[in-house]
Each structure stands twice: as C-alpha cells, then as structure tokens.
Amino acid sequence: MNVIKYKKTILFFTGIFLIILPISPISNQPVIIEKPDFLLCLIFSWLILDPKNSSLSILIILTFFADILWYRPLGLWPLLILLGSLSIKYLLTKVSIDGFFLKVIYFILFLVTIETFIFITSLIGLTEELDFNIWINRFVFSILSFPIIFYLLEILLFRDKKKSISKF
C-alpha cells in the first residue's frame, strides 16, 4: 500500500511539472514547434499501466490545475478526462491490451474523442478555435510523444508490476 501512495505522489508531481513546462519561459525566441500534450500522455499511460490504482481525484486536480494555467474553459478537461478514464477502466476489465501498437491506437482514439468534444463545445459556446495547423502539429507531436512517456513510466515506476505479471 505504501508503494502505491509513493507512485501516486510521483505521478502527481510529474503531472504538475508537465503542466508548468509548456508555459515556462525557456527562451525569448518564437516557438516553431507546437508542444505536445504531455499531461494527456501521462494520464493515459498511467491509466493503461495501473488502472486499478489510478486515482481519479489526482487526475481531476491535475486537469483542473491545467485549465487554470493554460486558460482553458474551467471544468471541461476534468470532465472529459473523468469520462475517458472511466471508459478506459471499463474497457480494460473487458479487453486485454497487450500489444504496444494497440495501446497507441487506443491513445489516438482517446485523443481524437477528447479533441472532438472540445471542438463541439467550442462550436456550441461560440468560442475561438485553434488554428488548424497548430492543432494538427500538437496532435501529431502528442501521438509521437506518447510512446516515450509510456516507456519511461513503465520502466521507471511500473517495472515491478511487469515482473510480477511475467512470473505467472
């Protein structure tokens, strides 16, 4: 039980770091490449690697904090992440996700679903949308960064779980 709290604390502070990273002033030069959504990659990786012990309250706190700092509509992302995480937990009880490419495909579906709901909400609320080039760059770079974050999370935090599964 102590190990689970330790992992949740690490993931919480990693999430805070990934929220602050895109808005930190690293240089005074204009940004050429749109930053991927590392927080969404972390959340999805955590849900896939440890669905039973992933804390919904931590996910909601992280996404609400991201809404505040990233000037997004308050509560929209926490709601979508809550619905997405519950559907992922339900999906993992019914279907086994063993292949790496299957995890990437599910991440793409997760990302497309969330972006579609945000697009529909922005149409209903008559709010300004992102430029398509910025959106597509962020989408592609998020998909490309997911395997890296997943692999790092699996190696650094969940290697003991992988070893215990391989014993059986």
Provide structural commentary.
This protein has one domain. Helices cover 73% and strands 0% of the residues. With 168 residues, it is mostly helical. Helix 3 packs antiparallel against helix 4. The protein is globular.
Q: In sequence order, what are the helices and strands, one letter per element? A: HHHHHHH
Helix content: over 70%
Spatial extent as radius of gyration:
16 Å
Uncertain spans, ≥5 residues at pLDDT below 50?
163-168
**Beta-strand content estimate:** under 5%
What is the chains' assembly state? Answer: single chain
Instruction: Look at the structure and give the mean pLDDT.
Output: 81
What profile does the largest beta sheet have?
A: none
Instruction: Count the DSSP helices.
Output: 7
Taking the alpha carbons of the first and last residues, their distance comes to 21 Å
Instruction: Write down how many β-strands occur, each being a DSSP E stretch of 2 or more residues.
Output: 0
Topology of this protein?
Blueprint: H1 2-20, H2 38-49, H3 56-70, H4 76-94, H5 100-124, H6 132-156, H7 159-166
Helix pairs in contact: 1-2, 1-3, 2-5, 2-6, 3-4, 4-5, 5-6
Question: TL;DR?
Answer:
Helix 1 runs parallel beside helix 3 (about 55-70) and helix 5 crosses helix 6. This protein has about 170 residues and is mostly helical. The chain has helices at about 1-20, 40-50, 55-70, 75-95, 100-125, 130-155, 160-165.
